[in-house]
Amino acid sequence: DTAVSQTPKYLVTQMGNDKSIKCEQNLGHDTMYWYKQDSKKFLKIMFSYNNKELIINETVPNRFSPKSPDKAHLNLHINSLELGDSAVYFCASSQDRVQKETQYFGPGTRLLVL
Amino acid sequence: DAKTTQPTSMDCAEGRAANLPCNHSTISGNEYVYWYRQIHSQGPQYIIHGLKNNETNEMASLIITEDRKSSTLILPHATLRDTAVYYCIAVNNTNAGKSTFGDGTTLTVKP
Question: Closest approach of chain A CAs to the CA of B77, in angstroms?
Fold first, then answer.
């Protein structure tokens, strides 16, 4: 009965490859987020979707493309992976971007680009 | 969203209360104070939030000063499992819900 799940948990890949990370929430929330946590442990928001609509898009390279097939899923596709993309990526969800900010985070996906 | 500042690290003895301070001197009237924590290798976990009044739940208490420029998170009886990085953030609930996490406070609970 995991609330927010991510797959895979670990991802090791070569530079230049394209990879996807999947996120699913079973909380019935309307809003989902992607965060990046780098080696310095700084947690930075990347994207946010509300009811499948993009509402936050921070300064993130175009190689990163979120996709929300329905409001329970927010996947992150990364093209042409670079060494600097190595980080832990966290997915999160909240009930509603206006009424309820409390976010529930997934366990993270540890991406290592070689 | 208002910027928050927290001490880099703190220690606490097991069984004692852990008091974690946060300064948010530029907080605006419609911004809530939220606390999350991140235990090593896990995703951040919501703890508590408040606007003006003090709040308490099963995890912690939140004390907000009358001028709302600072707050304190209190873990009444810290355990070893409370060792984590604690983030204090100020959030405007009327906008797109963007949360800016700072560096947080690394709390180490010692036996």
Answer: 24
